[in-house]
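Incident log, structure service

09:12 report received: a user says their structure output differs between two submissions of the same chain.
09:20 pulled the input from the user's history:
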Amino acid sequence: MIKDIKTGPLLIVISGPSGVGKDAVIYRMKERRYPFHYVVTATTRPKRPTETEGVHYHFLTEASFKKLIADNGFIEWAQVYGNYYGVPRSEVEKALKAGKDTMVKVDVQGAATIKKLAPEAVFIFLMPPSVEELKRRLRSRNSESSADIERRLAKVEEEVAALEMFDYVVVNHQDRLDEAIEKIDAIVTAEHARVHPRVIKL
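09:34 re-ran on a clean worker, output below:
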């Protein structure tokens, strides 16, 4: 008798260095209606002119953010470049309980924290075609001060060196977003075909 193999929902962690295009990849996946639950990160950093509350981030005051920390409201949080970022615990737990593949976008430091909490999550590292290309993208964004850009550039090689912590790497080429997201979708499809499924526990 052939036994059915049933896989539960996946927790998919998208990470990579600043400027690699994490936001752009997630936005394009939403546009193409990939059936994931996309967790909205909370942050205390100022909203950029092109961003929408509740879509790109939950923009919180520092006091509100710290209260959520005290209440164990994040599966991971960190202070990065002078601002706080966190993944809301209730949103992740609710989506997984509903049986939805759940995608979170975090920096490399955040991915390391989630790895300790939920090692069975699927960790995908977005890689730039080259460090030089990544630096060019950061400088062309015009959304941070020159000091912020220099801080981000200083961390690039350290973040790329964290690649060994991840399960998969996807190179995100300029103007080839669809290629990157199709590779991510293929990874998720392969994960659901595992003989020994991942079991996510938070």
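09:41 both user submissions now match this output. Likely a transient worker issue. Closing.
09:42 reviewer note: The chain has seven helices and nine strands. Residues 146-160 form the longest helix (15 residues).
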